[in-house]
Amino acid sequence: MRGLFGDFSTMPLKDLVGYLGNRRVSGVLGIEHAGERRQAVIREGVVVTASSNEPREFLGRFLVNLGHLTEEQFQKAFQTQKETHVFLGKILLMIGAVSEEVIRNALNLKLRETLLQAFRWSEGTFSFDPDAPTELPDAFEVGVDLLEVHRESEFRETAWQAIRAAFPSGDVRLEVVHANLPEMTRAGSFDDRMLQLVRQGKTIDEIIAALDATDFFLY
Predict the structure, then answer these.
(1) Which residue in 46, 47, 98, 128 could disulfide with 143, CB within 3.0 to 4.6 Å?
(2) What is this structure's pTM?
(3) DSSP reduced 3-state for 9
């Protein structure tokens, strides 16, 4: 295989991921749509790292939204990363902000989301370079099988149908029914910030933007 190039109108990302996963390829997959760019480094059919130019898909943002990191901790670590070019996870470990297990779990989620968020693109382009290096000297060894991502995409297709049956679009505004809340939210937590935005009358799309959350995570 010398490489692949194309667009999603002729080969959807789901089909591409299934093809690459079944062939157990190694190389770098790049995808782009409307200014969004994502890249996945693949080793023998397993995604070992993934990046995106969307801030909501940064590792630190996942850690904040999962409740493992405060916004202040994230911003300080992110500034250190920009100055030193050290992997964010290593910085967070060095300052004792989170454990290695937490980082690995968040990285696993990030690897999946970087691709799964793009499965809904009907337009865009892709390229796969089998000659690109796949070694990661300064990163945690975490891997997600492409075929596992492919299977999860099928579940999400069903899940999105159910979500859209309840919320036809992101323009919907919600109402908090306090009697139905199972417990008090922790001040500053993701749930607490989300409920504050609901009370302010924000739409779901506006809440997603304000929280820098991925669509599926928030829904």
Answers:
(1) 46
(2) 0.85
(3) coil
